[in-house]
Amino acid sequence: MSQPQGESTQALLAALTSQLQSMTVPPNISAVSLKLPEFWTSPEVWFARVEAQFGTKNISTDQTKYDYVVSALDVKTAEEVQDVLVNPPDANKYSVLKRALLKAFGKSQAQRDNELLNLDGLGDRKPTALLRKINALNEDPQSLKRALFLSNLPADIRSILAGQNFSDIQKLAEAADRIWETRGACVQQVIHTADSSPPAPVTIEAVSRPRFQPQRRPGSKALSTQAVCYYHSNLAHKLVAANLGANFRPCCLRETTMPAWQQLAIRINQTRFLLSTAYQDAPT
Prior knowledge:
Blueprint: H1 2-23, H2 27-30, H3 43-56, H4 62-71, H5 75-80, H6 82-86, H7 93-105, H8 109-117, H9 127-137, H10 141-151, H11 155-162, H12 169-196, H13 204-208, H14 230-241, H15 260-281
Helix pairs in contact: 4-7, 8-10, 12-15
Protein name: Transposon ty3-g Gag-Pol polyprotein
InterPro entries: DUF7041
Domain DUF7041: 36-117
């Protein structure tokens, strides 16, 4: 008789387990009353609030969390992560969407460091609030030291180093030294070349030629006088006739893609030519 009694006990336990499972509210049902705050462009804080709400509602399924985050995005925000929304992954949808939003709207550590270096003082905050702001922007002294170092370098050197990933700031400084030395050598070479090759004398014919167009290589851009001031546009013919046409880039050009050291060298050449021309044109 013990065997039938054991079977009845197991049947009773199974029935009780089934009742308990039916009494447990599924995550999808508990999530009906959940309304996430509309996404704002401070994704770290926003996700902290969202995940706290997920915890209070016992929401743990990946698909449910993904769906609720998508429903909280406005049109402009959704466009920034449309590749994830249009082609969501088969698994870990929520994690992939979260990373995409953090990448699109979160600040990199370099941006945080720059903001920290440009703080506008206490303002209307309490000193403790200012300290919290500083701690939120940077908790790594090394990255802040790197940002401070880069901010004090010349712009052309800083632009070269900005894309380099040096974990050791000493190696970053050594790389800056190499760029600095190369930069200085290039400027000295240009100045030396200008000293050893004085400009040819300007003839009246070359200056007065009305429609002179210098010969240039195929594909090279012609000198646009529309972006040049009146003074330099009249001077252009003299510079071309003096064999400086290839290097002629007046300082008043609106756009330039040349490095700063090359612009400096060209300005030195132009200044020397202007001085020599003024000396030749001076009345005797």
